[in-house]
Amino acid sequence: MASPFELLGDPGFHRELDDLPDIVREQVRDGLRTFIAHPLEHPKATRLHGSRYPGSFRLRIGSHRVLGIVLAGPRLIFLTTVFTKKRDSDYDQALARHEARMAAQGPPLRDHLAGVRKRR
Q: Quick one: which of 115, 12, 111, 102 has its CA closest to 50?
């Protein structure tokens, strides 16, 4: 059996997570624990439409959503944002944060993403 993926988060993700109420923060953490075992087949994860980064996903955890990217080669999940879904327009703002936080990443994540884009 393959080991779980490594989980990393953008500082903005951690700030957003810290701002959530304690009970919600624990729900998100519990959801992420189950997600890291099989992120590519998780039933509550979907491909993030509109992202220019291959492997970007949206994970539903109750009324909250977590956005990030799965890098299968290095077995890494990078989390970019967490938010409470109240209306469909919340996705637009979250996608903008995801894209900005992904663009701000330096090596080695940026180098790996450039290699994935070239192979597409």
A: 102
pTM: 0.86
Q: Tokens 């994970």 map to which residue?
A: 59
Task: Give the tens place of pLDDT for each residue, 90-104.
Answer: 899 999 999 999 999
CA–CA separation, 111 and 86 (whole Å): 35
| Residues contacting 7, CB < 8 A, separation 6+ | 32, 36, 77, 79
Q: d(Cα 16, Cα 1) in Å, to the nearest integer?
A: 33
Q: How far apart, in whole angstroms, are the C-alpha atoms of residue 37 and residue 97?
A: 26
* Integer Cα distance of 92 and 90 in angstroms: 5
